[in-house]
Every structure is written in C-alpha cells, then in structure tokens.
Amino acid sequence: MALLEGFQAVYRHLSCQPGLSAQHQAARLIGSSAVLARYRAPMATPQVDDPDAWTEAPEHPELVDKFWDPECMSSAEQRKLGLQQIRQAFQRREGDCGSSEVQVAALTGKIKAMADHMRVHRKDYHSRRGLEAMLNRRKSLLQYLRRKDFDAYAIVLSRLGLRDNYMKLERAYGKSRATK
Q1: Main-chain phi, psi angles of 116, to 5 degrees
Q2: What Rg do the C-alpha atoms of the chain give, in angstroms?
Q3: Is the pTM of this model over 0.70?
C-alpha cells in the first residue's frame, strides 16, 4: 500500500513539470530509492514482544560455527584473515602493522598467493608486474632490516623460510650496491 502511495505522489509531483511526460519522468525516478523514500508514506515500526529474543543463544550452534568457518569464506576474506594472522605473529607490540618485520611477513604472504595465481594464469602479465613490484619491495625492506637490526633480520628469514641472498647481491653489484 505504501509503495502505491509513493508512486502516486511521484506522479502528482511530476505531472506539473514541463518537458517529458510525467509517466516517463516517474519511471526514470522510481528506480532511485532516495526519491521513492522521499514520497513513501510513513510506515509503522514493528513491535517486538520480547526485547531479549534476539540475544538468546541460537538453536543450532554447530550451524553458526560452520557458517563462520574459514572454508566457507571467499578467497578475498581468506586472504584478509591470513594477513591478520601473519601480522599478529610478527608484531613487536599490540597493534603493530608497520614495522619492517610485519611488512616483510605480509608481503611474503601476498607473494605466495600471487605465485599460486601465476602458476594457473601464466600469461597474466599485469599480475606478473605486480608480483615483481612486491618482490622488489620485500627485497628493499629486507636490506633495510639487515642494515638496522641483523638479529631481527635473521629471525624473520628463519621464520619465513627465506634464503639470505645478500652475498649473491654483493658479488653481482659490488659492496656499495648491495648495501643500498
């Protein structure tokens, strides 16, 4: 009933405007929920008999657990959850998400996900460019971490299962290039 009254109100409002026919203008504007809400008749709010009805425990808790299981999440949600777990594992203090160790660990997780994507889609050159950028960023963060705190560098490498390519860089580019 309220929807019909909303249509009629829009039609009455537009029938006095020049230009297109009122029916055409109403049909264009009805698609907009904001316009329809402006002309919709006010509805009565539903009454709940028991205010604590929504706070009770669900009847089937195993279904709730199954619903929130990570296997039921989309790949984007799984990736976000994985990044949160990585950040919690490598953070220096509560809420740390910007230290070099956390950034390297997060980049490593993203690189692994992108490498899996690249195994399936070998000709995805745009993603390959993003993967190379992530690799270069991780390399520069690891070089910074090696310069500033060698102990933390060694711990991060061992926990992530990465190899130390510092000597290879030094031989290839010389000592000045490898330390930058």
Answers
A1: -60, -40
A2: 29
A3: no
